[in-house]
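COMPLEX REQUEST
Ligand: pyridoxal-5'-phosphate
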Amino acid sequence: MTCAVTASTSRDEFERAKRSLAGGVDSPVRAGMPMGAPPPVIASARGSKVVDVEGREYVDYLCAYGPVLLGHGDPAIRDAIATAAERGTVLGVTHPEETRLAERIREHLPSMERLRFVSTGTEACMSVARVARSYARREKIVRFSGDYHGHADEMIFSAGASSNSAPAIDAGVTRATAANVIILPYNDVGAVERCLAESGGQIAALFVEPVCANMGLVLPAPGYLLALRDLTSRAGVLLVFDEIITGFRLALGGAQALYGVRPDLTCIGKTLGGGLPIAAYGGREDVMARLAPDGPVFQGGTFSGNPLCVAAAHAFLDSLEGDRGLHDRLDVLAKRLADGTRSAIASAGLEYPVVQLGSIVDFMFRRGAAHANFDQARDADRGAYARYYWKMLDAGVHLAPSTMEVMFLTAAHTERDVDATVAAIARSLQP
Ligand SMILES: Cc1ncc(COP(=O)(O)O)c(C=O)c1O
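STATUS: Structure written out below.
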């Protein structure tokens, strides 16, 4: 692989970054604080691999926290971006390809009767909250601890994904904002039932990651999503599926297709742009009609529907639609990784459950049944994970520098990658 390897070390590069980038990063998790030192500084990525500034190659399971599904630098996506760039990189008006993309998405996610493109998942989630409030004329939202819906004020506290933020002015969150957010434990139908019985009349929307990949991987308990659908419908509360990670990754129709539950509103992003920043939110036509120009809710963006991102998204959907076996193959490969990890854990005399769904694999340094909520996720032994993280890097495997993240597989990962990873896990788990 050709890559921009520099003469300096990752350590030097990170020290240099700290002199101009706040904290040396553009996203706090990248500083690797829980690991005790910054992760390698990456110079390039191709297929299933990343290469650091010192020229060391790793099998990548971070995958940029989820967007990479076809593999790094997928040629079809690169070509689509280059071709689109010939026709202008930003237009600031509606263009036909943008509309065509909305039509394609609606075919795969029919619950998104009307949708709007934005650039990030954060924008999608905060915009959904605003439109939901306007529709319901209610001020509060409900969400679950350990789910992550981006870094808007109302979303950032008690959230997963290494966000570690408090509902306090110290973290820049006002009391008024915090007072309008109700946080409940994930996978606890009773808690939702009680909350909606007590305060349903004040709640505009309930946000959920239908499969949560931001406190490790937590699957919804059997019947949980259907129960949320039923309870919110009865309380007149809008059900929002945050499918920023699950959309297109778990299935073309996302988790809502996999579990057969139709939310009122949905957020998608990450994989959609094949590595470029595009996200969308959408749902019921009557709710989305609250958006300006039809309604009173303003939401806009200079880069929304950006033609390069739209072209990348078309190329991404072309690949998925042209390869209907992809999700099954990813599932088989991920099962190979999960089974190998189980054997490695058992050989090390440990008893950590491994969780896998589609192309997502995770285990926590925590005994007992697989964790089902944020409190249990926080029980995991972070020191043990940090030691494991550095051993895995030494063995050529690039993981997330946090226990709250998961391993993502892509179409570019091979059985060889997975088998080498399993061998590395087996070695790294030995005391
Ligand atoms: C489920 C979920 N929602 C929303 C977001 C925010 O997306 P972005 O980082 O693009 O703002 C993320 C990001 O990790 C996410 O995992």
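REMARKS: The chain has three domains: 1-60, 75-322, 343-353+363-393. The pocket of pyridoxal-5'-phosphate is lined by residues 65, 120-122, 125, 148-150, 161, 209, 214, 242, 244-245, 269, 279 (CB under 6 Å).
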